[in-house]
Each structure stands twice: as structure tokens, then as C-alpha cells.
Amino acid sequence: MSQSIECPKSAYERLMKGGLVGKVLRKKQEISELMLYGYDFHSASQSYLLFEKAKGELFKTNTRLSEKSEVWKNILFLYEKIDKNEDFKTDSEMFEESTIEYPSLFSCMILGEELFDYEKYGFPTRKSLEESIASFCIGERWNYFGLSGRGDYTWRTEDGNFKNSLSNEFHGDCWIHQIDVSGKYKKEQTLFGEIESFDTIKDIYGTEDRKGINAHYNYWENLLMIILKYAKSLGKEKIPEIINWRETLEKAGGGVGTMTTEAMFGGGGRSDINLELLFEDPIINADRKEKLETWPLYIRGDSEVNYLPYVFKRNLHFIKSCKDEEGSLDLSFAAPRFKEGKYKMHISYYESDLPHLLTGIYKLFARDRSLLPKIMNKFIEEAK
Questions:
Q1: Which residues pair with residue 203 across a beta bridge?
Q2: What DSSP element (H or E) covers 185?
Q3: What ranges in 298-349 are assigned the alpha helix state H?
Q4: Are 260 and 171 a contacting pair, CB within 8 Å?
Q5: Is-contact 371 340, C-beta < 8 A?
Q6: Rounded average pLDDT over 23-27
Q7: pLDDT for the residue 1
């Protein structure tokens, strides 16, 4: 069964509050090796040593169930499943699915005996802590554990409900994705006091919770211009992330290259005349009910669909330029061409996402990076 695992909001917030994300990242090397070579247990690896310890400890443990014996059994079941199936050597997804089914291994690697102090970390049960750590490791495997081989910039929204990512892929292409990482949460009053229950794992495979725009490399300049125009519409054209954009880029670790020779030397970018046109192209602003004189800035996805930026209640939305029966947006105020039909929001950003959007674009702007300073310098000069 295919899965696409994410760590949902309530679980992620507890991992952050308890300082566990930092503990996971300090084990980055061991976790990345395990996720790459989970089927190959080297005798010196931490995971193999835990496997050996689990076998030994089970023989010492009292036959009646205990928290520790449950953990050792969980680890042994995982290894037994992997050991009996040759497909694990060629299918990394099988390993990920199995670590979600038997989640004790990651937690043992990261916390050791502290795993049993789960309440100290804000978790009601050991299982909820184990599953949260496992879903975090699987969900962030591309972002934190160096498994993708490409440039990524990822952040979660201020309310915690969405995980956003920008990527310049292998060829410098402009990829924009947003994942709904919200989850169920409730409090119940019982005879034993208040009990919290929340999702620790979210499988988004085959759902609408992941949305994206996969555009070619020459849309980085459009995306940057859209975000700058969005900032201007908010009256934030002089924020530090814009005025001191070089410093922002340096703090982000500098620009990320790509893995292909065509991305090394740039070229194919806009001429100065076309750059002027880029500045003149508008974005749809519902807050001001502005009329469009020309076709607005857009990003074209790999499905040949145009995605139009749309400012509404100080948030930025990308909407499909084609009419949608399920849409609720009326764009007739902007131009007669939008008079008939409704439109649907595809990806949305809050005002608080603006610094992340700028930082990610500076870092990942690909193919002709000489356009980045040209656009920024011109925008800053016009904003004076």
C-alpha cells in the first residue's frame, strides 16, 4: 500500500515544544543512513546495536508485559519483517511504511531510556510519542535528512495547518507545493480527568491535501515579481527581507545550484525591455477592486494551466485561470474576460508567509541568477 506520510499539526507542535525536533536533527546522520539503507544492518550501526540489545533485553525481561518489553518486541518485529522480505532492498517506501507500523526504533535511537518519560515531553502515551517522531522523520525526509539531492526551502504556516515548500528541482524548475498538515484534536473529560486525543500520523496519499504548481525554470522571475507586488499591496515593500535581500540570502546559506550543466551559466533570461514589461504586468487585487488593463502576471504549470495571483483580505492566493464548477470566486470586477464563470483557489499564503516566500525564492532562483539582483535593485529603487 502506498503512503505519503506527514507529521500533523498537534504532533508537530508537541515535538517542537518539547525540544524533540532538535534532538531528532542531532541524529541526522544515523537517521538518514537508516532511511537510505534500512534493510542493510551494518554491525557498527546504531540501529543494529539496538536490534541486538532488543534480543538480549527481551530474554531478561519478565514474561508479563511491560513498557520496555513492548518496545523491544516492536523493534524485533520490524527487523523480522525486513529480514524476511527481499523487496526491502529495492523499495524504500516499504521501509517507511514498516517504521510507521512499528515506530519504536526511531524513538529509541533518539531518546534511549528517555522514551519512557513521554509525559515530560507533553505526550499522553508512549505510543503517541513514538508515532509522532516516526511521522516527523518520514514526512521531513527530503527537507532535513539530505535524501533529495535537490534544493528545497520548507516552512509551516503560522497557524500550523499547512506545510509549504519551494524547490528548484534538478534542472532549476520552479516547483511550488502546499500540504494540509492539519489533524484531528479533541479534549474529553473522563472519570480519570481530562484526556487529549490527536492525530500523530497523516497519510495524504490519494487525497487533495497536497497541491502544487510545477513550472519551468523561467517562471522564477514571475514568482519573485508576484511576491514583490504582493508585498507592495500590503505596504511592506521596505521590509528588511526586501531592502536587505542580500543579507537575507546570506543568512539562508546562499543560493542553491542545480545538478545540470545548463543551470550553471544562466542564459535565456529576460532582456531589459522584457524586464520592464515584467514590472508593468499587474496582479489581481480584490481588496482594492482594481481593474486590469492587461493580462495579469501568472505562472504556467506543467499541465499548461495558468495560475493567477489573487490578493484577497491581505492573503495571496493562486487560482486556476480556467473556470471551475466548484469555484466560488467572482473575478468580474477585474476585467470583462472574467465576467462569466467562477474560479477556485489552489494554493494560499498568509501575510506572515511573506518573509519565507522571499527567502526561499532568493535561495532557489535558478538558471539565470543574474536576473535576481536586476529585479531586486530595480524594485528597491522604485520603492524609494
A1: 5
A2: strand 185-190
A3: none
A4: yes
A5: no
A6: 92
A7: 42
Question: How long, in residues, is the chain?
Answer: 384
Residue 269's pLDDT is what?
53
Q: In terms of DSSP bridges, do strands 306-312 and 284-285 run parallel, antiparallel, or are they unpaired?
A: parallel
- Return the domain boundaries, the chain: 5-147, 212-383
Cα separation values, 124 from 33, 105, 153, Å: 30, 19, 32
Q: Say if residue 239's pLDDT is above 50.
A: yes
Helix axes 92-101, 67-83, angle to 10 degrees: 160
Backbone angles phi, psi at 347, to 5 degrees: -130, 140
Where helices occur in the chain by DSSP H, the ranges are 9-17, 20-26, 28-36, 46-60, 67-83, 92-101, 104-111, 126-139, 141-144, 220-233, 240-243, 245-251, 272-280, 354-364, 371-383
CA proximity to 365, closest of 355, 376, 354: 376
What burial class does residue 33 get, using C-beta atoms within 10 Å of its C-beta: 0-12 exposed, 13-18 middle, 19+ buried?
Answer: middle
Instruction: Give the residue among 110, 78, 101, 124 at the shortest CA–CA distance from 5.
Output: 101
- SS3 string of 95-149? HHHHHHHCCHHHHHHHHHHHHHCHHHHCCCCHHHHHHHHHHHHHHCHHHHCCCCC
Q: CA 318 from chain center: how many Å?
A: 17
**CA gap 21, 26 in Å, rounded:** 9
CA angle in degrees (0–180, nearest 5) for 213-274-300: 15
Q: What pLDDT is recorded for position 264?
A: 46
C-alpha 81 chain-centroid distance = 30
Q: Which three cell numbers stand for residue 149?
A: 539531492
pTM: 0.88
> Do 114 and 127 form a contact (C-beta atoms < 8 A)?
no
